[in-house]
Amino acid sequence: MYRRITILLCVITGLLFLVSASSQADITYWRHDPTRPGSWFDDTNWSAGVPGPEETACIYNGGTAVIARGYATAGNLNIGTVLQPAYAEEIRSVRPFLGTGAVRQKGGTAKVKGHIHLSGSLRNPGSYTLIRGRLSAGSIVVGYGLGSGRFNQFGGINRVRGELKIGDLRRSASIKPDLKSSLGIYRLGRGVLSTERTSVGVAGRGRFVQRRGIHRVKDILTIGGPQRPWPWLQAVPMPIDEVGEPVPADEIMDKPLVAIPLPLPSEGRYILRGGRLTARRQEIRRTGVLKQRGGRNKVDYLSVHRGGRYDYLGGRLRINAGLDLDGKLNFGGRRTVLSAGSALLNFSRGDVLNSQNAVLRVGPRSLTIFAKGFNPKKEFRY
Question: Considering the entire predicted model, what is its pTM?
Answer without folding.
Answer: 0.83
